[in-house]
Design a protein that fits this description.
309 residues, Pdz3 Domain, Serine Threonine Protein Phosphatase 5, Tetratricopeptide repeat, 5-stranded antiparallel β-sheet
Length: 309
């Protein structure tokens, strides 16, 4: 694990509720026989919507990468943030994930938790199954709530009064509370890792990543917070500890892409030792931290002078 971690608070509850349900067997909505391709062939009924409102659902079956970017909604559930040209054409931004295939086997999990869904998709052995709720492009769950209070009224009128000051103070205090909770959640994830509950740790770290403040900009204009970078790094460490090499490399690439730049640590951290055993690791880290001396040149010099290695 990286030595450059931000200060953290006491243990919080990131992913804890789902982990408790997992331990008791709750949340497992279906057990279905698998097709030869690895997809489930039976799926649970989608939950019905509010009285008088029909919920339109559809199914997605595909291999990773799915071409779908997911995000945690303000209700804690998982939504589609964006899609690429390779995604199933049914999938639209704003759609909600209802069920996801388990990491392996024919089980289907209810998508109650962002970290759980990311874990299930990344470690899936074979094709991924998703049951989705079509929401017609409604992105409300991924947007910050807009409060048309006295502050907005004053702002619209070009005024700055008591309502505006109260809103600013409230937003400041809420931001501080969320920051403290996030650090507590980080500590909870770290405790899980240290207790060797690597599966629980990576789910909790994924939830820390998903709680990144919208439109974050640091004092040095970084678009990603330090706690996000470290959480992303630790997700990779957890996958490595579980022997999930492909998922670990994918998580490490996410971490490096987010701006984690302690390349020396990546190259020597014992928590990433399993990842360094594969050739893909070297190719990945060299894309972000180009070696000072090209290895091919070194081999050529050794051949000239009779080196054997």
């Amino acid at each position: 694990m990286s030595a450059r971690r931000p200060a953290v608070g006491t243990a919080g509850g990131a992913g804890g509720a789902w982990l408790a349900r997992r331990a008791t067997g709750a949340g497992l909505l279906a057990r279905a026989s698998a097709e030869p391709s690895g997809f489930v062939d039976k799926t649970p009924e989608a939950p019905s919507g509010p009285p008088g409102e029909d919920v339109e659902t559809y199914e997605v079956r595909g291999n990773r990468p799915l071409g779908i970017n997911f995000a945690k909604g303000n209700d804690g559930r998982v939504y589609v943030k964006s899609v690429t040209s390779t995604a199933d054409p049914q999938v639209k931004p704003g759609d909600k994930v209802l069920f996801v295939s388990a990491s392996f086997g024919p089980e289907v999990w209810e998508a109650l938790n962002y970290g759980q869904v990311m874990y299930a998709i990344r470690t899936r052995a074979g094709g991924v199954y998703l049951k989705m709720e079509a929401r017609g492009g409604d992105m409300t769950p991924l947007e910050e709530a807009v409060d048309r209070t006295q502050a907005q009224i004053e702002s619209a009128g070009g005024n700055y009064g008591i309502g505006t000051r109260e809103l600013q103070q409230t937003q400041y205090l809420e931001g501080k509370a969320l920051e403290r909770q996030r650090r507590q959640d980080f500590q909870d994830a770290l405790d899980l890792y240290r207790s060797k509950d690597f599966e629980g740790a990576l789910i909790a770290f994924e939830n820390v990543k998903a709680s990144e403040p919208a439109n974050y900009i640091s004092d040095n204009f970084s678009r990603v917070s330090d706690i996000y970078k470290i959480a992303a790094y630790n997700v990779s460490c957890a996958y490595a500890a579980l022997g999930q090499i492909e998922a670990g490399l994918e998580a490490l690439e996410d971490c490096l892409e987010a701006g984690y730049d302690d390349y020396s640590n990546v190259r020597k951290d014992p928590n990433l030792a399993r990842l360094r055993e594969v050739e893909e690791f070297k190719e990945l880290i060299n894309r972000y931290d180009e070696p000072i001396f090209n290895e091919n040149i070194l081999k050529g010099i050794k051949n000239i002078f009779g080196g054997n290695n």
